[in-house]
Amino acid sequence: MRNLARKFGHPVAFVPNVALVQNASVIGDHGHMPAFLPVEELFRGRHFDREIIILCIRWYLSFKLSYRDLVRMMSERGIGLAHTTILRWVQHYTPEFVKRWQRYSRPVGGSWRCDETYIKVKGNWMYLYRAVDKAGKTVDFYLSRRRDVAAAKAFLRKAMREERRPTKITLDGYAASHRAVADLKETGELPKRVKVRSSKYLNNLIEQDHRRVKHRLGPMLGLKSFGTAAVVISGVELAEKIKKGQFKTGRLGGSQVTLPELWRAALTA
What we know:
Elements: H1 2-8, H2 18-23, H3 39-42, H4 50-62, H5 67-75, H6 83-102, E1 111-121, E2 124-133, E3 138-144, H7 149-162, E4 168-171, H8 175-187, E5 195-198, H9 204-217, H10 226-243, H11 259-268
Parallel strand pairs: 1-4, 4-5
Antiparallel strand pairs: 1-2, 2-3
Helix pairs in contact: 4-6, 5-6, 6-10, 7-8, 9-10
């Protein structure tokens, strides 16, 4: 890999493992946080300074910008980049950034609003399962090629693995989601005392929250593969959680530091 990078003058493209992206956890087998590489090692061998890399990734995930928009913005600052270079940075570093930020995650509430929406990946519609708590805090997401019982179960299992088990779940009227909850109760994965309800009014919260993510995905001009879509969405969800104040930032400097300083502290701490 290193030899290929030297030969072509840039890092070789990174192909993400979708299962790892969608099922990653920062807690190891023995309940301890895994050790992270020093940030210097994380960016070793890169042609550009790590501050430039982090800036491009942060702006791409946070704002309505395409890769080519970022190329023009960097060019005005005297930095020559190809849009494919930024694409590779986003795909390579976003999963690592998500794991590092997750160490400071605040717990969400127990009343979940769950729903799924549509996004287009390589010309085909995919299903994005998402949930927020009653305060609008993001619980989790899951990208699926299908909208069925198996996908709904996979989403709920992932959400419960990353967060506390819910006390209430609000769903739309889609039968597969209700069947998934019933099956998880039957197997004991979801406590039987969990209250399940259908309410269009209560689920307005998650439907409005979908717009935050879809609003950001719009300028991306189409996601080219299921794997790249899962990585980008995980990064967009991270940026939204930061905006919502879902991380314990006291150890990182709190409200007294700027957002770039907060990112720097989260990645290096």
